[in-house]
Amino acid sequence: MKARVTVTLKSGILDPQGKAIEGALKSLGVDGVASVRQGKVFDIEMSGSDKAKAEAALKAAADKLLANTVIENYRVEVLS
Amino acid sequence: MKSAVLVFPGINRERDMARALKLVSGDEPAMVWHAETALPRGTDLVVVPGGFSYGDYLRCGAIAARAPVMDAVRDFAAGGGLVLGVCNGFQILCEAGLLPGVLMRNARLKFICHDVHLRVERSDTPFTRGYNAGQIIRVPVAHGEGNYEADEETLKRLEGEGRVLYRYCSAEGAVDEPSNINGAANSIAGIVSERGNVLGMMPHPENHVEDIMGCTDGRGLFAGLVAHLERAA
What we know:
The structure holds two protein chains of two kinds.
Chain A: E1 2-9, H1 16-27, E2 40-45, H2 51-66, E3 72-78
Antiparallel strand pairs in A: 1-2, 1-3
Chain B: E1 3-7, H1 14-25, E2 30-33, E3 45-48, H2 68-78, E4 82-86, H3 88-95, E5 102-104, E6 112-120, E7 136-143, E8 147-149, H4 152-160, E9 164-169, E10 188-192, E11 198-201, H5 219-232
Parallel strand pairs in B: 1-2, 1-3, 3-4, 4-11
Antiparallel strand pairs in B: 5-8, 6-7, 6-9, 9-10, 10-11
Helix pairs in contact in B: 1-5
């Protein structure tokens, strides 16, 4: 099964990298960019076919390692 | 003083740290590989040195914080044992949940590598008793992610409980915006755990311990630890 864990910064957490990217996009003349926040995407291949079990395992993975829940939120999707 | 210096892949300050510990305490520290599940018997102080454990992959210190040896460090700290984390070591201790908060990317996005001044906030802790409260010391920093952040509640607790031991300041001791090199909340350079036995700091006291280094201001931290342990013995 293909799965995806998306990790994003919580709102209110300063994101200097996102700010720098935002500045670069604006200087490139990309229209309509109001703000940028940078995050991470993990594409994970899960063995087995139990979707609920995979979701629970990935939630544990995110809590234990993939995200620092002090500053980050995460979303788990089992795609197929 | 029996110290144990943890070694993770990608760490590069462990020998500087071991040298400083030997110089000030007279005792050779044990180097402890990350895959160990126990600390050497009779360890007085665990040191998590600086460097780039696991290449800073995922987040600085995130992978090292989950190494087998960290369970032993957690038990050691829970029993009141002294733990010192410097630079990447501070990041590892935060990721391991031994200290609150997180070290974010420097506010101006640059890797900073130069001497800074620190104000020692109090002298009545094992990690600062080699200094006077309010003393200004000069030590180097070398980091890209040293911007200490925590939620408002945590910051309030840290300040209220006197757990900020080191703060970035000017040469004259002013804690202000220009001296706050990485944008850290409240100019925080080093904090201790609730019990006061775990210190994390971004600057490198181990690099200012000999005359040949041009400054010996970092010695006080190690000398203070030695004095604390001698008194406790």
